[in-house]
Write a structure and sequence with these properties.
alpha/beta; eight-stranded parallel sheet; 3 helices; EC 2.7.11.1; protein serine/threonine kinase activity; ATP binding; repeat; transferase
Length: about 475
């Protein structure tokens, strides 16, 4: 007992020394961070300053200088700032007066959806422990500082929806811990750096809605943990690299609205987890790979406005989860494969402006979830199948600009949700069915350039159209138009 008491007496001075020496350090660090935040606050617009009443030094005593109770500020157990969060707060100011070097323990900065303007200072590289940086949805301009590549602990980097005007610095390829990179909706130009292929932990890469040019780097095929790749709305050229077939965890591949050329690589068929493939509005050519039929988890397949040719692969009938199929404005030919009748989840089918032949398939009547069918401007012939009348959910039927013949099926009168019916520029004949007057949702009807007749029916449909146009149907849709060519 005496030995234990003696030990406590001997250790007591050490504890006192540690206690006395640590307090000034903690207070000093806290004062520095508090003053740095107050200097930043002073640079804000007056309206923003007034919304931060808690950012205030109540006295000159060290015990009251900690910013840990201030709005938007979070500290660790030692009283040092580790997180700043002002999501959607309305901050109006810049980052120029923010003293990055004063925050040696800062890990999280979330300032997205504010009104920050000016540039991103290169001194941001002082935040050596930073894990999370979100400056998206602001008005930041200028360049992404190359020094950002020094933040080697960074896991999330969001700079989207600003006015950044620069190339993507290749130094971002040093951020080996990064799993989420979002640079969308800026004014970025130049190539996609091949150094991004070093980011093997990356799961989300969003570069869409910029002015990026050059080819898609082969090195993106190294990102085998990638779940979503979106490079829509840029100026990218050249082929789609076959290396993208290595991304076996990918769920979304979006590269529409570019100038990509060459064939769609059959290696895309290896991406069995893919749910959305969007390659519309490019200059892709060649056949639609039959290997796309392997992507049985696919819900969106959009290949419109390219230069694709040949047949629609029957293997697309394997995509039983597909809800949206868009192959319009290509050079596709041949018959509409009957295997598409398996796509019972389909709500949107767009095949217009191709060179498809044969008849309108009767199996369309089995796709009862269909809301939109665009078959316009092909070389389809024969009668319109009465089974189309089974599509009770259909809102738009566009069969115009073909060589369809026969009469309009009376079953169309049961399509109570139909808003647009375009049958013009065909060879339809006979009476206009009186039951078209039952189409209570109809906004636009085109029967022109056919051989239809029937004044009574014309009056009935026109009267119904007038009644519909007066009702509060669909916002920003023009009043009902009825086009006839009475012969």
């Amino acid at each position: 007992m005496a030995k234990k008491l003696n030990l406590e007496i001997l250790l007591l001075p050490i504890f006192l020394v540690l206690l006395i020496s640590s307090k000034p350090y903690m207070a000093s660090a806290s004062i520095e961070e508090a003053n740095a935040l107050l200097n930043w606050k002073a640079s804000f617009a007056n309206q923003t300053q007034s919304r931060l009443p808690s950012w205030n030094l109540l006295s000159h005593k060290p015990s009251t200088t900690s910013p840990c109770t201030w709005f938007g500020i979070f500290c660790n157990s030692a009283g040092s700032v580790i997180k700043i969060n002002f999501t959607g707060f309305g901050l109006n100011g810049t980052l120029q007066e923010f003293s990055f070097s004063s925050f040696s323990n800062l890990k999280y900065v979330d300032l997205h959806m504010n009104s920050l303007f000016g540039t991103i200072p290169s001194m941001i590289a002082s935040l050596s422990k930073l894990i999370y940086l979100d400056l998206s949805n602001n008005h930041l301009s200028g360049e992404i500082p190359p020094e950002i590549g020094l933040l080697t602990n960074l896991q999330v980097l969001h700079l989207g929806q600003n006015q950044l005007n620069c190339s993507i610095p290749h130094e971002i390829g040093r951020l080996r811990s990064l799993y989420d990179l979002a640079l969308y909706s800026n004014h970025l130009y130049g190539p996609i750096p091949d150094s991004l292929g070093n980011l093997n932990k990356l799961t989300y890469l969003y570069l869409y809605n910029n002015s990026l040019s050059g080819s898609i780097p082969l090195e993106l095929g190294n990102l085998t943990n990638l779940l979503e790749l979106d490079i829509d709305f840029n100026r990218l050229t050249g082929p789609i690299p076959t290396t993208l077939g290595n991304l076996n965890k990918l769920t979304v591949l979006s590269a529409s609205q570019n100038n990509l050329s060459g064939p769609i690589p059959h290696e895309i068929g290896n991406l069995i987890t893919l749910t959305a493939l969007e390659l519309s509005h490019n200059q892709l050519s060649g056949l639609i790979p039959k290997e796309l039929g392997n992507l049985i988890s696919m819900t969106f397949l959009r290949l419109s406005r390219n230069q694709l040719s040949g047949l629609i692969p029957k293997e697309l009938g394997n995509l039983i989860s597909l809800t949206d199929l868009r192959l319009s404005e290509n050079q596709l030919s041949g018959l509409i494969p009957e295997e598409l009748g398996n796509l019972v989840s389909l709500t949107n089918l767009e095949l217009w402006q191709n060179q498809l032949t044969g008849s309108v398939p009767s199996f369309f009547g089995n796709l009862t979830n269909l809301e939109v069918i665009f078959l316009s401007h092909n070389k389809l012939f024969g009668p319109i199948p009465h089974e189309i009348g089974n599509l009770k959910s259909v809102v738009r039927l566009h069969f115009d600009g073909n060589n369809l013949s026969g009469s309009i099926p009376p079953s169309f009168g049961g399509l109570r949700n139909l808003a647009f019916l375009q049958l013009g520029e065909n060879q339809l004949s006979g009476l206009i069915p009186e039951k078209l007057g039952n189409l209570i949702s109809l906004i636009y009807l085109d029967l022109s350039e056919n051989q239809l007749f029937g004044a009574t029916n014309r009056t009935t449909v026109s009267h119904q159209a007038h009644e519909i146009s007066d009702g509060p149907k669909v916002a920003q849709i023009p009043l009902f138009t009825t086009l006839f060519d009475h012969r």
